[in-house]
């Protein structure tokens, strides 16, 4: 399996930017898919963006045009650049990975990083 460690969260004013990082403990080439999710207080966890092994991305509608996911294969890291942040983006952001080992699918979550956007 894989271990994921997120970083980069913090407090920012509305309109500001943050860049989240998710470092994987193994080559992300071996990971079928990765993604960023978020969970706001009192709400269900929701997908922000999914990233396929081929690098294609699929964004949740509310973040399209503001958030950009990318990957650095050499560093086994994926990033989430968040621009034009809004108070409603406030949440704990989690990195997610789907790996397949011997035909068995495993889902791994990072510990989460808090993003707070003040108005």
Any overview of this molecule?
This protein has strands spanning 4-7, 10-13, 18-24, 31-39, 46-52, 57-59, 67-72, 77-82, 91-101, 104-109, 113-118. With 119 residues, the chain is mainly β. The strands form 2 sheets. Strands 2, 4, 5, 6, 9, 10 and 11 form a 7-stranded mixed beta sheet that branches. A 4-stranded antiparallel beta sheet has the order 1-3-8-7, with no helix packed on it. Strand 4 and strand 5 form a beta hairpin. It is globular, with a radius of gyration of 14 Å. The mean pLDDT is 93.
Strand content: over 45%
- Low-pLDDT segments, ≥5 res: none
Number of strands: 11
Percent of residues in helices comes to under 10%
Query: Major β-sheet, in short?
Result: 7 strands, mixed
Query: What's the number of helices?
Result: 0
Sheet/helix structural class? mainly beta
**Global Rg:** 14 Å
Order of helices and strands: EEEEEEEEEEE
Outline of the structure:
With 119 residues, the chain is mainly beta. It has strands spanning 4-7, 10-13, 18-24, 31-39, 46-52, 57-59, 67-72, 77-82, 91-101, 104-109, 113-118.
